[in-house]
Every structure is written in structure tokens, then in C-alpha cells.
Amino acid sequence: MKQKSVAVVGAAETTEMGKIPNTSQLMLHADAALNAMKDAGLTAKDIDGIATAGDSPVEVAHYLGITPTWVDGTSVGGCSFMLHVRHAAAAINEGLCNTVLITHAESGRSRVGARRFARDPASQQGQFEVPFGITNPPSMFTIPALRFMKQYGVTEEDLAHVAVVQREWAAMNPRASFRDPVTVDDVLNSKMIAWPFRLLMCCLVTDGGGALILTGADRAKDFPQKPVYILGTGESCETPMISQMEDFTTSKAFRVSGKKAFDEAGIKHADVDHLMIYDAFAHLPIYGLEDLGFCERGEGAAFIREGNTRPGAKLPLNTNGGGLSYMHSGMYGMYALQESVRQMRGLAPAQVPGAKISIAHGVGGMFAASGTIVFSNEAP
Amino acid sequence: MAEYNRPLPAPTPETKHFWDGCRDGELRLQRCTSCKQSYFPPRPFCPACGSREVEVYKASGKATLYSYVINHRPRPDFGEAPHSIAVVTLAEGPRMMTNIVDCPQTPEALVLDMPLEVTFEKASEDISLPKFRPVKG
Asked: Shortest CA distance to A14 belongs to which of A276, A278, A207, A228?
């Protein structure tokens, strides 16, 4: 795939973030899209490709007045937007469309015009998982962690360190939901949710959205913002049932997606200046560091505990504060992408000085799917 | 247990043998007659090699504890008390989600790799759920 000829030329989040009880989910899509179009100096008539997840791309396109020649409704959870970027890059390279709008919005907290989650009792998950009491991510996404902890001697303190470091990043971000510093003890004394996970090891539930606009790199310099180029992309999926993961100590979808993105980009780990790993829960960055190859097996937790991902350290990770402290509307992948774009534009609140390559790695469902995007602010 | 108001599975033609087995007090798995691989959840072909030549058999009901959480969030149907949501590795190889029962729902009582055996919890005339309990030593 000729990934290298596509760039992000518009990027924005919703005007507000957090609790937005006066706006429907559909309008959050539009708010993010209008902000991104303004950022790119475009209007709806300039957009000929549309992608979204959760909600229908038809609904978003019609609401905004877009007539697309390319439509992508890939909906595999929170990393769907990474997959949209990948598919959009291929579509633009193939000439199926020129300018793609990808939107995400979720009234995750206020539930204004939000879809209800319902699992069919005849589905595989409805038959073989739901009857045992899984309801939502905190009692499901967390199940593999104990096996990981036993295998590698990872402790509850290690999980707490993930939340502590991300709060350090959030403190630098005026838009972050939670900015007050927390200690390991604060995390370990927070309310028990699903042992061994406590409240501060779990992501927020907020309202918000984001949108990206992609076009051919040959046109990218004509736009008002500094172009952010796509160097490599990956995607994969494993299982709709967390109980059926091949191995609870590693995500196959992470490994496949990550390797694909690195191979396409032709970069080494040492080339990466900035990293986003979707952190729905505190164990996710640890899995991500290992499955993407930044750390050896079993060394991810120590890598974070020893401070390597903190502000000023060698591998800045989740610099917006992440799903644990920045925001998490339900499908967080879009916000990881937004932060990578901000870092590559040099405009992030906690800017990594001189960063040239950023990776945004997402998870979909509960280790069900994955998408990985390698960005650069230098034309390939 | 009085009235069972938890979400129950709705068997499909491909999974009916499994739920019929649970109702009759027997844990049924499938295996491929060509590559001999046991698998779960049920389907009428082998996920390892694609063969449709598969058979249903009665599993041993033995398992070990692979991983779990203890859910502390009250839910109307599971009550206020913390309860385990676990994944076990069956002696035959496949893994399944379940609850560990007949023991305290604490980290001290629930030790990874501990031996378990199946027990069936009747939920309705047609549905019994496969749960696992520690093997009494």
C-alpha cells in the first residue's frame, strides 16, 4: 500500500469536552466535523469521503450535507478510527475519493441521543460470557490482567504507577478532566471496582468527539495547518470474546497491527519520539509497550514504574493524560489520534520538543481488535 | 436461589447440544475427527483445520483457574456481594468463562491454576449454567 502519499490536513475535537448535557451525540459529530473543516479551511462540499463508527456514516454525511464517493462504516470499537485512517489512505491512493472526513462522537456520560448497548442472548458473547455477570468493560477488559501479573510478577502498585504517570501528563493539559496529582497510595486506596482494579485504574466516562480530514500529500502544503504525514498503518482483530483470547499475557491483534505499521513505515523503535497507547484501563499501556516491541516480554510494567514514560523522559506516552485522566467517551481511539496530530504540529499542551515521529495505537472492544498509525511531520 | 432473573443464553442450532448437555448435567465439548483438536465455543466445523467432520463428546469437567476478577459493582441481578468472573482452562484444552462457586470470593481463596470441577446451576427448565468449584482435596 502506498501509505506515504497521504496526510492529515484537518484535525479537531468537539468545542467542549467532559459533560455536555445540552448536545446530542449526532450534533457532537457535527461539532467536531465543523471544527475540523474550519481547521482545514474546507466546507462540506469539499469532502468526498466519509467514515465513522458506532453511528452510521450515512447519518453523519447527510446531517453535514456531504455527498461522498467513498463510505466506510467499519465499527470494531475504540480503534475504529485508526482503521478508518488506514482505509482512507488506501482509498485516496486508489483514487476512490480525494478528501476524507473521519468523525467520532459519543454522549458517553450524558447519553443524549446515544445508542443503547444491547447484546443478543443468542450471540456467542450472549451465550458464553454475559450469563456469568460481565456487564461492561470494568468487569470484562480486566479479566486477563491477573494472569499477566502472575506470569511476570507485576503488582497492583505497578498498575497504580500507570495512572500516576498519566496524571502527571494530564496536569499539563487544560482540557484534561482530571488534573490534580495522585500518588500510588491514592490509586490503591480508591474504590474497588473489579479486583485487582480500582477506580483510578479505570478510564473516565465523558462526552465528546473528534474529527480528522485526510487528503493526498501532494495537496497537503496548500492547507493552512502544518501537514501531518501518514508513514505506516496496521490493523487486525482477534476475538469478540475476551475469554477466547489465545493468550492472556499478550494481544495477538496488537502484535499483528503494530508490526504491520512498523514495517510499512520502515522505522525502528528508536525512531519513535511520541507514543499513544489506548488506555481504557491501567494494564493496557503495559500490554501495548510489550506487544508493539518497545519493551521485552514482562518488562513493560517496570519501564513505566521506573519513569521512562513521564514528562521529560525518553518515551513520552499518553501525553494528553489518556483515557485515565484526559477523557474517554467510549471509543477513545480518536483522541489518541488527535494528540498524535497535535504533537506532530507542535501544538500540544504538553509538547514533546522536536518530536518528528508519533505512533497512535488503539484497541477495539476488549482486546477484540486493533489499529496502529505512524505519523510524521516530515514529508516522506 | 429464588427467582432467576439474570440474563440467560438463547441457544442456536449450532450450540443446542452444549446447552442440552448442561441441562442434563454434562459438559459437552466438540473435537475434530481428523485433526483431533478440541474446541469451544461450539460450531459445526473445526476452527483449527476447517473440517466439518466433528463430534460431540462428554468432557471430564476438570479445569484449572486461568484468570479472573472479583466484581465489586452491585448489580440488581447478581446482588450486592462481590463475585468472581473467571476464565478456566478445561482439561481438554479449551477455555471458557464462568463463575467460581462454593468458596469465598476472595483473592486468598481464588488462586490461579487451582484445580476446579464443573457444577451446574439450574436457571430455568431449559438452561443450566456451567459453574466451577474448587476440587475438594
From this structure: A207
If one counts every other C-beta atom within 10 angstroms of the C-beta of residue A121, the result is 15
Contact A127 B7 (CB under 8 A): no
Range of the domain at A77: 3-113+204-376
| Nearest alpha carbon to residue A81 among A260, A323, A332 | A332
Name the residue with higher pLDDT: A5 or A292: A292
Whether the Cβ atoms of residue A210 and residue A204 lie closer than 8 Å to each other: no
Residue from A124, A134, A142, A146 to probe the interface with B (highest B Cβ count within 10 Å):
A146
Residue B64 Cα to chain centre, angstroms: 12
Taking each helix axis from N to C terminus, what angle separates A25-40 and A57-64, rounded to the nearest 10 degrees?
60
Per-residue confidence (pLDDT) for residue B3, from 0 to 100: 54
Kind of pairing between the strands at B62-71 and B83-90: antiparallel
Residue A228, pLDDT > 90, answer yes
> pLDDT (tens digit, 9 = 90+) per residue, A171-206?
999 999 999 999 999 999 999 999 999 999 999 999
pLDDT per residue as tens digits for the range A110-149: 999 987 777 899 999 999 999 998 878 999 999 999 999 9
Q: Check CB contact under 8 Å for B87 and A248.
A: yes
- Provide the β-strand partners of residue A362: A371
Instruction: Give the separation between CA A144 and CA A73, rounded to whole angstroms.
Output: 29
B48 and chain A in contact, CB less than 8 A: no
Cβ of B69 within 8 Å of Cβ of A194? The answer is: yes
Copy the grid coordinates of residue A52: 465513522
Q: Rounded mean pLDDT of chain B?
A: 93
Return the closest-CA partner of residue B131 out of B103, B93, B106.
B103
Residue carrying the nine cell digits 482505509: A87
Three-state SS string over chain B comes to CCCCCCCCCCCCCCCHHHHHHHHCCCCEEEEECCCCCEECCCCCCCCCCCCCCEEEEECCCEEEEEEEEEECCCECCCECCCEEEEEEEECCCCEEEECECCCCCCCCCCCCCCEEEEEEEECCCCCEEEEEEECCC
Residue A127 belongs to some domain of the structure:
no
- In-domain check, residue A283: yes
**What's the rounded mean pLDDT across residues A207-236?**
96
Tell whether A150 lies on the interface with B, counting CB pairs under 8 A: yes
**What pLDDT does residue A2 have?**
54
Cα–Cα distances in angstroms (integers) from residue A109 to residues A106, A130, A249, A302, in the given order? 8, 23, 31, 33
Please tell me if residue B5 touches chain A, with a CB cutoff of 8 Å.
no
Q: Is residue A137 part of a domain?
A: no
What does the domain layout of chain B look like in residue ranges?
16-134
Of the residues A125, A132, A156, A247, the best mutation for testing chain B's interface (the one with the most B CB atoms within 10 Å of its CB) is A132
Q: Which residue of B has its CA nearest to A245?
A: B95
Give B 59-78 residues with CB within 8 A of chain A. Answer: 66-73, 75, 78
Can you give the CATH number for the domain in which A212 is found?
3.40.47.10
